[in-house]
Amino acid sequence: MDPQVLIDRLEAGAAALAGAIAGVPDTEATWCPEPGRWSLLEIACHLLDEERLDFRTRLDYTLHRPGEPWPAIDPVGWVEAHRYAERSLAETMAAFAAERRRSLAWLRGLSDPDWEAAYHHPKFGPIRAGDLLASWCAHDLLHLRQVAHWHWRRLQDQAPPFGTGYAGQW
Prior knowledge:
By secondary structure, this protein is mostly helical. The protein has one domain (3-167): Up-down Bundle (Four Helix Bundle (Hemerythrin (Met), subunit A)). The chain is 62% helix and 5% strand. It is built from six helices and two strands. It has helices at residues 3-21, 26-29, 40-64, 75-81, 89-109, 129-158, and strands spanning 118-121, 125-128. Strands 1-2 form a two-stranded antiparallel ribbon. Helix 1 runs antiparallel to helix 5, helix 1 packs parallel to helix 6 and helix 3 (40-64) runs parallel beside helix 5 (89-109). The protein is elongated, with a radius of gyration of 18 Å. The two termini are 33 Å apart.
């Protein structure tokens, strides 16, 4: 594994997410494609919380605090606890971009990290530092797919009486 490739991927992931979310007004950002799905604002808030409270923190623990338990996270509970619905999409994405820059600077500043260092997770078993870095990249891609789905569903809601069939199948 070349960690630099993954670190560069994190930089590209942030840019892709920012581009996919840019320009959506707050009045649109709270629209949900269906019950049980997140709004675009909730996705953005989740990305910010994951950046601050999950991946960077847990990777730091794995690399620098072996044996210490990871801080607890509650991504589903954060929606209410962190009052996602009251936030601004543009401000949230600006905060996410700033946090990602901090993460990238931190990652690039690590001195000879042991990517094989592992944390024993009670559900997933051993998770190496390299696994966390790769999962961080994958997390961006999962949410990029979720953002694309949000846009697709929003278009389907707004397009009638016109159709989108000519574009191809989703």
